[in-house]
Give the backbone structure.
Amino acid sequence: MSRPTSRPPHLLHVFSTFDVGGPQIRFVQLVEALGGAFEHRVVAMNGENRAMARLPASAPVELVDFAPDKRRPLRNLWRIRRRLGELRPDLLVTYNWGAVEWALANALRPVCPHVDIEDGFGPEEAAGCLPRRNRLRRLAYRRARCVVVPSRTLESVALDDWRLPRRQVLYLPNGIDLSAASAPPDRELLARFGLDRGEPLIGTVAALRPEKTLGRLLEAFRLGVAEPGRPGRLVVVGDGPERPALEARAAELGIEERTCFTGYLERPARLLGALTLYALSSDTEQMPISLVEAMAAGLPVAATDVGDVGSMLDESNRPYVRERRADALAGSLAGLLDEPERAARIGRANRQVARAHFSEAAMVERYRAVFDGAAGPAEAA
């Protein structure tokens, strides 16, 4: 049965967490840009919902409570199936492995159309997908209208490891508000953190979780900047469960006085324009939004070679995308700091790439088409 034409399509989005991170930030972008074209409900499997604060008060978004029973997976599937039947969304949208149970519950006899959006992997799959999870993904996504991936690396995984058909996998890169990312830095914010002293600033923006491997960045900063006596400070923007351990590690390395942990910042792009270069130390990424923001801000990048990071950047930046080792990352940091004119040229080239390929407007229109096209009449239940 078709939905009434008097109301917009109702989308149910299921996240493992609705804390602030890449998928959640993109969701906020889409909700704001799409306006009243869709109504949204959000399930956060772990109950965290801090990303709600990023939405305007008038946003058509409602939180849906659901407490999973992790000890009884079959009962959990039955409860999810029943909840789907109660909510009857026009489209189920699942995000990453943490929402796979909802995809499974809907796949057997679909209650509604389904779109899956994948952004990458947690630390347990940093070295490669787990075979058991691949089997479950094939089962869960077999009836999805499409599986959206933001990187070519993840596209290959979906096709080769998950064995999804070519017609089902959609490459759709992330986009950002390019003007906001390239705006001048907030001077009051810089002064608050003592970052207005004219010294080089090496920065990163990340949720402080294990897969971001920020301990590697601390070690690289010590090896490539602090130990040779180069001027500069390390700025870590973000918060998360790893923060106490990272602060302790900075003290162990003797760099605590040269490391600034800002904690959670709304609109972290306010600091990007003050950075000398951007650093990314992750063990697993696909297409990081923070990296696109750094490119739009005109920054050169020192990074580990994960996901699409190397291919996203301008060709001139690629020699500074290295192995997942602290000494390799240290060499990239030092190389960019030692050649400021070359680093500035690389940054300008990165900005041009971001403007050409990663605009928010293009991303929004493609997601509008995905949601419009998928939110059709439900298959028979």
Summary: The domain at 178-357 is CATH 3.40.50.2000 (Rossmann fold).
